[in-house]
Design brief:
The chain is mainly α and 65 residues long. It has one domain. It starts with a helix and ends with a helix. Zinc ion binds next to loops.
Length: 65
């Protein structure tokens, strides 16, 4: 991260602004994507029983009633 900051400082000003903006956008996008993927994976995983692998959709639906 320190190395990245030094590269940023050595770059010409207009380019560095664009690069840092793109970098921040990329990091935020990656974090959001990772978070959403993690949430989706957790939701999908929770659909099946961790012990016998049977679907828990019917179980969840029955519990909701
Ligand atoms: Zn089970």
């Amino acid at each position: 991260m320190v190395r990245l900051f030094h590269i940023w400082l050595s770059l010409p000003r207009p380019t560095s602004r664009k690069v840092i903006d793109m970098l921040i956008a990329a990091v935020v996008a990656a974090l959001v994507l990772g978070f959403l993927t993690g949430m989706l994976a957790f939701r999908v995983k929770s659909r099946w029983c961790p012990e016998c692998g049977a679907t828990t959709v019917a179980l969840t639906a029955a519990r909701a009633r």
